[in-house]
Design goal:
The chain is α+β, with helices and mostly antiparallel strands. It is about 20% helix and about 40% strand. It has six helices and 18 strands. Strands 6, 7, 8, 9, 10, 11, 12, 13, 14, 15, 16 and 17 form a twelve-stranded mixed beta sheet that branches. A six-stranded mixed beta sheet has the order 5-4-3-2-1-18, with helices on one face. A hairpin with a 2-residue loop joins strand 6 and strand 7 (about 110-120).
């Protein structure tokens, strides 16, 4: 029989509108039992939290840094990085006094350096793991689409081609499953429109829908602008309306934006503990 999970070890957090379950395994080590596919899927479901969430963040111990982040999409696939989750976990760590405002944590793509000024102004520096960026062109629904392909832990298709926003979903879903990207297991798809700032909309693979924001998409779009247009700082507005700024540095990307810890009045702990005990038998 597995012990019951302390409800205080699980919270809902948000980064620029991306909502996640955060599991605190540093304060509550027994919560590591939640790192199973069927439990991750349940945690992101309406049955547990009352809404469909975008993924699960596990905050774990680290021997060298303040903590370690492991991230899963809501279908339980593991992701090497999530930019918005990085800001959310750093805010949580500061609020719960697990780390100072200036701190660092481990991730699957390297060490993330954080500066939590306040909940509206959080800076995370994410290592640039590759300089390789590709450009291409495809035709979809009779429209020529120019794009950039960049993978800094996640493969992103970025286009500044002018499409009507009401057509975004059909364009994005077709591109996500296009056979030319099969070797990458599909791509996250973002379209950007430039005005004073840059509007960005992203369809995320594995989540399989448009999300309120995607931090790594903003990084990929910013790097595209850096390489092809010599812009080293870009300001993005995803559909959530929360500003995300990305500065391209010599060896990393600095992403600045907001995060918050949300109230969790709904959690169905009875169903969760029943599922945990089934897994433990």
């Amino acid at each position: 029989m597995v012990s019951k999970i302390d409800k205080n070890s699980i919270v809902i957090v948000s980064g620029a509108g991306n909502k996640f379950i955060l599991v605190d395994c540093l304060t509550f080590p027994s919560s590591l039992v939640l790192e199973k596919d069927n439990i991750i899927i349940m945690l992101c479901s309406k049955d547990f939290s009352g809404e469909i969430l975008d993924g699960v963040i596990f905050l774990k111990s680290s021997q060298k840094y303040d903590y370690r982040m492991t991230f899963y999409n809501n279908d339980s696939t593991k992701a090497n990085m999530c930019g918005n989750a990085s800001r959310a976990i750093s805010l949580y760590a500061v609020k719960r006094q697990l780390a100072n405002k200036l701190h660092s944590f481990e991730s699957d793509i390297g060490v993330i350096f954080c500066n939590v000024f306040n909940s509206e102004n959080i800076s995370v520096k994410i290592p640039r793991i590759t300089n390789e960026i590709l450009d291409g062109e495809m035709e979809l629904f009779g429209t020529k689409v120019n794009y950039y392909l960049y993978n800094n832990g996640l493969p992103h298709f970025i286009s500044f081609s002018d499409i009507k926003w009401e057509k975004f979903y059909n364009f994005a879903k077709n591109i996500r499953f296009d056979k030319k990207f099969n070797k990458l297991n599909g791509v996250n798809v973002s379209f950007c429109k430039k005005d004073k700032n840059i509007e960005i909309r992203t369809y995320e693979r594995f989540v399989e829908r448009e999300t309120a924001a995607c931090g790594t998409a903003c990084i990929a779009a910013a790097y595209s602008r850096y390489i092809y247009f010599s812009e080293n700082s870009s300001s993005f507005y995803p559909i959530s309306g929360h500003l995300i700024i990305v500065n391209v540095n010599n060896h990393d990307f600095e992403m600045i934006g907001q995060a918050e810890i949300l109230p969790n009045n709904y959690f169905n702990m009875k169903n969760l503990n029943e599922l945990i005990n089934l897994n433990g038998k």
